[in-house]
Specification:
The protein has 200 residues and is mostly helical. 62% of the residues lie in helices and 6% in strands. It has a three-stranded mixed beta sheet, with helices on both faces. The longest helix is centred in the middle third of the chain and has 29 residues.
């Protein structure tokens, strides 16, 4: 057994084992993505559990004062997704969290291995989300490629963020956990716009 120079570091063999466990966790998440009911409940009344997930996300993100606003149609979703007045603090906070998770993950995992795992996961998320958007759009008689692509991109991003939580060994209370769970409920958490959280 070898040790890193840092006296508080994890033994090398334990680091390898932990790193493999995290990569396996990402692979298991990826294997679930085709079963996620992407966008199947958009526009429907929010359930109590979904409101709770939204509140957990906002609280963990540091936006406890944001008002939850249900989005009821693809037209409203387009406005929320394209509105130039979206909260840059919200965007910046998510980016900071993503960067921090990436740094923590790379402290344990090889960069190439992590990138391969995340790329594979993103491909699976894109495939599932494309199918879900296609079905939801057909039901709503929606013909808006840019909006469909925005929804798919948001889904892939959320899956990527959720995978980073696993890769970093972050706590279950991390903001990206309830955010992804909303997608697992068939929802689309769109954005914080003007102090309101738009959830489709």
């Amino acid at each position: 057994m070898t040790w890193d120079d840092d006296e508080d570091a994890i033994p090398a063999d334990e680091r390898i084992e932990e790193g493999l466990a995290r990569l396996v966790g990402i692979e298991r998440l990826g294997s679930r993505l085709l079963q996620v009911p992407w966008f199947t409940h958009v526009g429907q009344p929010l359930l109590a559990g979904e409101r709770e997930l939204a509140r957990q996300y906002l609280d963990a993100l540091g936006f406890s004062d944001a008002e939850l606003v249900p989005v009821q149609s693809w037209e409203e979703a387009a406005f929320a997704a394209e509105n130039p007045g979206f909260d840059t603090a919200w965007w910046d906070t998510e980016e900071q969290l993503r960067a921090a998770l990436t740094g923590d993950a790379l402290a344990l995992l090889d960069q190439t291995e992590l990138q391969i795992a995340l790329t594979r996961l993103s491909d699976r998320a894109a495939n599932g989300a494309k199918r879900g958007v296609r079905e939801a759009a057909a039901m709503a008689s929606l013909d808006d490629d840019s909006l469909s692509n925005a929804a798919i991109g948001s889904a892939v991003q959320a899956a990527h963020q959720r995978a980073l939580v696993l890769a970093a060994g972050a706590e279950a209370e991390h903001a990206f956990v309830p955010k992804f769970a909303l997608f697992e409920h068939g929802r689309w958490p769109i954005a914080v716009v003007g102090g309101t959280f738009h959830l489709f």
